[in-house]
User: Fold Toll2 from Penaeus vannamei.
Amino acid sequence: MNMKPLWILPCLVVVFSMVAEVHGFSPCGKCVRGEGKLTCPSDMVPERFSVLISDYNETSESVFELRCLHGAKTVNFSLIDDCSFPNVKYVLFNRCPRPNVTFAEVFRRVGIEPENVVTFSFLSVDTGRPGEDLEEWHFRGLGNLTSLKLRGNHFQSLPPNILQYTPKLNYFQLSFNNISTLSETLFQNTTQLKILHLYENQFTHLPDGLFKNLNKLTNISLWRLFRETKNIYSIELNNNMISSLPDDLFKGLNNLGKLKMKRNALKTLPSGLLADLPKLEVLDLQSNIIEELPSGFLDNQRITDILILKNNSLAELPEGIFKNCAGLQELYLSHNKLSILQNSWFPAPATALRKVDLGSNNISFSSFASGQEISVEENFPLLNQVNLEELSLEDNRITAVPQAFSSNYVNLTKLNLSHNDIEFVDANDLIFKSDEVALDLKYNKIRTINLQHIQNIAAYKVIDLSIAGNPLVCDCNLYWFLRILQGKDLDREVPQLQVKSPESLTCSYIGDETTDKQLLRVSSEMLTCSLQECPERCKCFTRTHDRMYIVDCAYQKLHEIPRIISQEKQNLRNYSLTLNLRNNSISNLDRVEDPEYRYLVNLTIPNNSLISLNESVLPDSLRVLDIRGNNFTYLEPSVIDYFNKTDITLSLGENPWICDCKLTDLQSFLRIQELKVLDFYNIRCTNFNETLIDVTEGDLCPIILPPEVIIASTVISMFLILSGVLATVTFWKYKEEIKVWLFTHRLCLWAVAHEEFDNKKYDAFISYSNKVR
Assistant:
């Protein structure tokens, strides 16, 4: 809207006598006919008036102008009541007093058809006394009126419904009057109104709903609106279509404290608009189309504490625009087109700024301002605003959390960085000078949250984190965050991280980005990260939970163990090594003697071509050995001894074990150390349909003598038998002699004594002594 007077249709009336061709008209009335006009009456009296008829827009005699003398009290229309002006569409009453009947009745009396009139101007009446304002019925009968001008009449008020009879009105001027307020219903029936002039009045109040029905209003002029109202504290010109303002609109309003002009069509602002407003506390210019602010526009607003410029089209701000605003506490610049921020814009050296809203702009913190990259901490544009409590930077193009928050802003409680382009968050981004901060990172592009060094944040700090709507990746970088989220034990003290709506958080695995996993159900122990440097045909990972470096070379048709990149070169100090060689064609383990395998704790090599195991090549760090599905038939006793002496977990099944005496050591090991062998019931004998642990010792290793022992035993047995036979034959042949000899020598008497006594009829005892000779 244009706040300056717009002379469109009414201007035509003023210049009709100059630019329109003046025609003669038929003699009528009791008037003196002059050149192009009638003068009534002929005498020079105060009631004297003149009538001018002219052409406009190629319509003959379409303009009727009634001119009265200054101070005229009445107009005697009977002097021309026999005239006829059927072509008149534009009517002008100049310095003529208010009639006591409707203007439509006046028009009829002077020969004008009221329904033909589209423009009416009622100008420069010397009134202002009570009872001389217009009445509600004055415009009855003018239903086709499209332009109405009430200028310089000193009206003190207008009836609330005076315009109810002019629904087609699109231009209305009410200027140079003494009106202090307008009724909220004044424009209720003028929905076609496009241009409105209200300047040069004495308004002290305009109701909120004054313009609510004027949806087609495009121009409004209010200049010098407040010239007589020096004590106004609050002005609200909201929800209009004001497109420009005069420079001196608020001149002299030294006590104005609140100025609100939101939801208008302002594109530019006069540089001196606020010059006379030293006590302004609140300035609200939101929801206009302002493209720039004049340099020095706010230089006099030292106590302004709330400034609202959001939802405009500001792409840049002048140097030092807020510098003098030492009392500024809240600044709203969201929904503009700002791409950079400059330190010099903001209050300095004194500042009270505690809330700044810069959301929905194009700020990236990667542009250069005054030759310096503002993403650098020391050049952060708000670095000197040390009293900040709330900062909103949502919906911009920011790619990282500014590190200035770790050293400044001891009062910061809210930081909104949602809807930006941040891809990575680590523990440093959660370091704040203040003790409790609500950090909003929702709907960024965050894939990684690495809180490995979160112990650097004091345990008493409280961080309320909102992080929903980010494409998190289920990998090892998420480990510490996930442990905190799931309430699992950590080996360190950490701050109080309170995550909003944890049940809504999801992540996806690399290669399966279309499938989201609920974060609360993801196992932190299994999270891994890929490594770029890795042996050919292998994949390398790290697993944070047990600090494991994993080299996966499964199913690659390898014939030997590959050379790996050491932990030191991978920057994985204090990491153990897991080697997965499943389903290859490897026949020996010699390569694990190499230095890069000295931290090997898990060797998984099932389904290969191993036939023997040399324990001397295995590193001391080894804790898991999986040799299932190879070609082992037995294990050397030295290997079993190694298993017994080390704390190692084994998988030995699915090998072609031959159950014989060579496996007795392994069987004994399984029975004593079965907990070490995860699959002891899968160790089966190829020569028995049984598991090794269930085979009896006799079946496993039956006692079989050597051939030489058998031969020696046979010879000895035959010799003994032959000797026995010979002894028997000899005894029977020399039986008596032997018995005598035995008796004589008193040997084996038990063998022959009974035999001598059997079958004897008499017993005799013979005694003799060696003394009887």
User: Anything to note?
Assistant: Residues 707-757 form one domain. The longest strand covers residues 59-68.
